[in-house]
Task: structure prediction
Amino acid sequence: MIGTDEWVKAIRKDFPIFERKVNGHPLVYFDNAATTQRPHSVIEAVDQFYRTYNANVHRGVHTLAAEATEAYEMAHKKVAKFIHAKRWREIVFTRNATEALNLVAYAWGLHRLKPGDNIVTTIMEHHSNLVPWQKVAKWTGATLRVADVTEEGRLNLDHLRSLIDEHTKVVAVTSVSNTLGVVNPIPEIARWAHEVGAIVVVDGAQGVPHIPTDVQAWDVDFLAASGHKMLGPTGIGFLYGKEDLLEEMEPFLFGGEMIREVWVDRATWNELPWKFEAGTPNIAGGIGLAAAVDYLMQIGMENIEAYERELTAYALERLKEVPGIVLYGPDSAEDRVGVLSFNLGEIHPHDVASILDYHGIAIRSGHHCAQPLMRRLGMEGAARISLYFYNTKEEIDLAVEVLHKALEIFA
Amino acid sequence: MDIYLEYILDHYKNPRNYGTLENPDISHEEGNPYCGDVIRFDLKIEDNKIVDVRFSGKGCTISQAAASILTEMIKGKDLDEVKKLTKEDMLEALGIPVGPTRIKCALLGLKVLKSGLYGLKGWPGEEEEEE
Result:
């Protein structure tokens, strides 16, 4: 049943956007690492909130306020279940993964690091898990150490391990590269970090939507993700943090919602997770995210992972047929999700993307917010196909056909 | 695929006035940070006229073809005329429908030229809004 034509067809019916045409062709959406599409259930959950129980949370005693509060809290509980957190208090809603990673950098990093300490990260990070640590290092006098990739395009684990020592306080690493698609062995990396008393901060933006995530089994201290990359609305993401760490931390933003008692000269903080959710939160976004999580759990992350691996293997095989194509990252679909960065001969990635767009195929072109990795791999930019479980082999065939046409145009 | 027309591809594959000048009066290079495209203009100026021009750079078909076309538009022209060139003039000369996603590719050459000539900040066509 899983992965059959009927299975994918049924799934695609849940996504209204696949009814539209782009430049006269049915939409082929291959830009899922940038943002995914939304199923009816997510759109309807947001719509339903605004239409029938719109109110602020944690403030009123009236019926609508109670319903909104319950739905917003339930959203935290669903996310907690989805990533196997021990308690829902450990889930803080943020704008996106970037804000969640900044929260850790400011509220933990800035207060805990000092000269002589070091932060270990990797060259395959999205800018959001690199630049905040650059700033924390600069402000605290700590040093930043960056682990390399192997020639194959995987994280160089020997190098990473050699960078972790008794002065390491933070290991900041992505669970999946947004450029190479490789899946990093987070449990192993977490163990190395904990051996020296460091915390591990995981950017889960590309991993959480595609592979089963278990923060307890992996023993990670923090994990960040974005709702819009996993079928949810934009403007909502979350941070998972171990309860004791979150309890010890100072808040990130100050103001309403996050306080318990306020005097003119001092204040005390609300309980978790509200201590980190200052101001009126993105209530509709949280409710939409919960609907997205429901949808993903109903299909099953194991099924999504298995189907996407099959699609990725197929895409790798088919893309390799295109003359002059250079594919970045490992040659196999093992420990890899459907992120396929490539260059087509001398054709500029923008031109590749434009030609695909004429045929209704949406891909990304550019530096993918990972400029240090691009430089390391000796490329200025790349085209990127990124898949999700609603994509099909037929769509991959179509893209390959158009890439051949691009070669003819530029011949 | 109405942007990949024969003459656009021809300007891309066989760019006019490509290269650099020895002792240019003005040499200016800029890029578009979003896509990494870079263009440099070298200009030789006599009696307030552009007597020679070369461009060099790297980037997509649209940015490179537009710069090539622009060199042909400005060679031998009075600087006051060149200063008056607008975003619309550039798009008209390019002659293809450039959507919002590729507009900056089309205008990069003109931006670099104007920035080098008289320090234009921002993008051609946005001047009015800034003032």
